[in-house]
Amino acid sequence: MNIKTIGIIGAGKVGIVLAQLALKAGYQVFIAGSASADKIALTVSVLAPGAIALTSKEVAERSDVIILAIPLGKYQQLPKDELDGKLVIDAMNYWWEIDGDRPDLTNPGVSSSEVVQQYLSQSRVVKAFNHIGYHDLHDESRPEGASNRKAIAIAGDSAEDIREVTQIVNNLGFDPVFIGKLSEGIKLQPGGQVFGAHVDAPQLRQMIKNFAIIK
Amino acid sequence: MTDKEIAKIKFGLDSFGDIPVDENGKLFTHAEAIRQVIKEAVLADKLGIDVIALGEHHRPDFSISSPETVLAAIAGQTKNIKLASGVTVLSSDDPVRVFERFSTLDAVSNGRAQVILGRGSFTESFPLFGYELTDYETLFAEKIELFTQLLKEKPVTWQGTKRAPLDNADVYPKTESGHLDTLVGVGGSPQSMVRAAHYGLPVVLAIIGGSPERFVPYIDLYKRAAKEFGTEAHPVGMHSPGFIADSDKEARDIAWPAHKKNFDRIGKTRGWSPITRDHFINEVENGSLYIGSVETVAQKIAKAIKALGVQRFDLVYGGGPMPASARLKMVQLYGEKVIPRVRELLAEKSE
Ligand SMILES: NC(=O)c1ccc[n+]([C@@H]2O[C@H](COP(=O)([O-])OP(=O)(O)OC[C@H]3O[C@@H](n4cnc5c(N)ncnc54)[C@H](OP(=O)(O)O)[C@@H]3O)[C@@H](O)[C@H]2O)c1
């Protein structure tokens, strides 16, 4: 598939930066906040001019791939039906200060992206863009081959989907590093060494190899 | 910049009441840490620094949970310095009480009180005061709405879902100026900029990591939103962390271990990995840590002020367990040398 449109659900700190990077990379960008499109229209027109503000349902319907950038605790508000059959990139993290106590999201044996995949049972979920802070995402985006380019880890189950996401990560300005199945995405979550890391690809690979929860 | 523009720029110092260490490396008690801040604020006033802003926290690593009480003590020992909170966590507070406390501070200080409302970056206050984290959004939205009504200093009739309604309630003391100086502290959330513009309140940007330049469009957003809402777009301020010593090396050597302790302690609860020296140096050199000699820090501040067109710069100082004497010296260097040097740099013609 030749991905031309990227949808972003969540028009906050991360959603806006991802929109900026995707526009720069030449994608058509659709973006949604929690409410109607007009609530974020001004924000989008100033911060990510060229992106089109829609509702999350419309974003899901009209995009080739959809990045999830809302608080993880709200994943059940995602437009499940409209996301049916779509490739979905999960950039969300469990953040207790926002999400509160959520045993469903903090099972140590299950990656949070698997929980999202279970909910979006008819979508294809790949984890990416979650482990790097939004300002590093903004500041560290570099063209392919640039020195000191930073890496972004990708976890997912289908080779075809991984290929697509690899391309997107690369186009958005980062070296893609495939780390394994969606279940392995747990290595990218808060608490792990990779979380918060903005390092190059060899360093990221090393971290994944040495994966150990820092507690 | 013209002299007139430069004269308008305000410089502040911000503290959360971090716990300093004495010359033997022993941590101050919370009470001592609070008295240290008072001492620093008194010195700042003597040096002509414009603002001291104290942030509210409810955690062992920060001593200030009640900024206005500390500010009232500072008021009694100072003449000119603005006494600000930075921030007052409005979501878990009562807007009426916040108004009362700060209008009282305003009385005590002859009109020097300033409230900076915010959501805060910590959430300990929620369980402490009986609020639900899941109500975060609603709490802030409702309370800031009520607070802006209280600012009119007329009887308020108001109804929301998270607080008892008010029926023609008048709140005292009134300020002498008729306006309690109020701002909103915001992070990188676009919606916060739009909301501040909606209420016609000025903003202070908390830029605690990454390049300050990336906030240029956010300031534009604030102005455009104000225009759309027909409110006033006020001058924008910023705050960022830093530390000043005689040389770059000395500043880094003192700040690094304290910064690391601070960062890693917070990181542990949030799940990010310990900070590396490389990351720290990168923030110092390219990001938002204003750490170094007088010249280094002044250059960096001047650059940020120019890039963003802000009219206020607050240095968040003393992060982590830092020697108390180094903190006091930093205040001295900031007031005596850095601020005048920044003004000088701003006056230079940019080619
Ligand atoms: N901050 C970072 O550095 C960072 C880095 C990587 C990943 N992440 C992850 O990315 C996600 C977003 O974080 P953030 O920092 O960008 O948060 P944020 O600034 O609070 O933004 C969240 C956005 O999600 C929207 N939203 C909430 N519920 C929604 C729904 N049901 N449908 C559509 N939109 C909805 C919000 O819209 P309203 O304003 O209308 O409520 C807001 O635009 C989180 O899961 C976070 O863990 C964050």
* SS elements, strand count of chain B: 12
Which ions, cofactors or small ligands are bound in this entry? NADP nicotinamide-adenine-dinucleotide phosphate
| Mean of pLDDT of chain A | 95
CATH-assigned homologous superfamily of chain A: NAD(P)-binding Rossmann-like Domain
As an assembly, this protein is: heterodimer
Number of domains of chain B: 1
The most extensive interface between chains reads: A-B, 34 and 34 residues
How much of the sequence lies in strands of chain B comes to 15-25%
Mean pLDDT of chain B: 95
Describe the biggest sheet of chain A? 6 strands, parallel
The CATH superfamily of chain B turns out to be Luciferase-like domain
**CATH class identity of chain B:** Alpha Beta
Coarse shape of chain B:
globular
Unreliable segments of chain B (pLDDT under 50, ≥5 consecutive)? none
Number of strands of chain A: 8
CATH class of chain A: Alpha Beta
Radius of gyration of chain A: 16 Å
Secondary structure category of chain A:
alpha/beta
Could you estimate the helical fraction of the residues of chain A in percent? Answer: 25-40%
Question: What can you tell me about this protein's structure?
Answer:
The complex is a heterodimer of chains A (215) and B (351). Chain A has 215 residues and is of the alpha/beta class. Helix content of chain A is 34%, strand content 16%. Chain A has helices spanning 13-24, 37-47, 56-62, 80-83, 96-99, 112-119, 134-139, 159-171, 201-209; strands at 5-9, 28-32, 52-53, 65-68, 87-90, 124-127, 151-155, 175-180. Chain A has a six-stranded parallel beta sheet with strand order 3-2-1-4-5-6, sandwiched between helices. In chain A, strands 7-8 form a two-stranded parallel ribbon. Chain B is an alpha/beta fold. Chain B has twelve helices and twelve strands. Chain B has an eight-stranded parallel barrel with strand order 1-2-3-5-8-9-10-12, surrounded by seven helices. In chain B, strands 6-7 form a two-stranded antiparallel ribbon. The model of chain B has no long low-confidence stretch (mean pLDDT 95). The interface between A and B is medium-sized, with 34 and 34 residues. NADP nicotinamide-adenine-dinucleotide phosphate (NAP) is lined by residues 9-15, 32-35, 56, 69-72, 74, 77, 91-93, 95, 130, 133-134 of chain A.
